[in-house]
């Protein structure tokens, strides 16, 4: 699930839906595999089903390598309703499954043969029999989008709300695949638009995620209306999905029509639809949500301590989106989430150097610190955006931060400091982090030894030795020592020449 520095790109529901999608691909592959007949064998079968004499002499126990009986083969090799009746009268069972898990009815539906479907049903085939994946013939019709096959099955009493192994109804499947006419027909026969799938997903969730605008409208307006605020197991509403995937037309439809959609609702991760639009760089969707529904979502933080502004900085590839959010005058460029991290932290962590430059130029403070909220107060590890960039290996951003020319860099420091003296008279908002009096090394840069972290704010003339230490050794000064030990005037510290040893060592 990621860490406090970054929201995970995939949720549990995403992983499940990926598996569901893959499972339907496998189903189609297995159906296609059943249709693969060797050329020589196929020619012979076509001869059998094309000649009454040859058909009358056929071995009724004939099976292919995939376990297809003559009844299965009749549905894919040119058989007709007369052949179906004859084979079933001679004892061939329509319930027999191929090795891939399908009945003759499944194959007839997959081939969209209304004549054979009707003949199988009139001869006693079970319209509700399930095959591989818990699929009925109506599920197969919904997968393929075969309108005529769907109509025949429904006319013969197929259960319109039957669920497969992942609790998808035919309506779920037709909405997922974008089969508009099949969806319309299923609704005509009373399909329930609010049945939940395995993870609480309704057909409207699927149509919204896939961007099928006409199907979304059908589900909302046709017959029993879909619940536009229905939540899945992770509390996503349809608006979350169309916002995330950038389906602007569905977003606009849901928000503008008189549907009482809740635009600022959050999922279990605390994400509003605006969060998801920003995480995925959907500028037009973000603009639509704010213009129609207001700025309430801009102030909401998710469980990762991120507002929509943080989300846009995490995406980082749309400076226009970031600028638009800032222009609402609701978002402070230096707003810190509960863990202290800013939009600049997010941009640095994810390597968006152009956005980092933009944020710095517009007043982002690189010295604000974040800390892991899971740690106790005594274990705080305060980290600046430079440290986040360094952790992820974004060297160009590290260099930019180190050398970025801020307005205060132009101050005439020499007027406020004396050779060998201190910089206490420098006017600075960060004065508390500066050395206040002359002394030896243990008094320098308290921001280092108080939390054992890299100093990033200022170093006055007395901290120069520590700067030199870090530059020459590549180590953080005093990082291996506890604050009390460093500040103890009796501590047995001996500093060797960096030129000779390359480090400062504790003689103990």
UniProtKB/TrEMBL annotation:
The keyword Acyltransferase does not apply. Its EC number is 2.7.11.1. The keyword Transcription does not apply. Residues 124-508 form the Protein kinase domain. ANK repeats lie at residues 100-132, 133-165, 169-198, 199-231, 269-301, 339-371. It holds the Pfam family Ank. This is Serine/threonine-protein kinase TNNI3K.
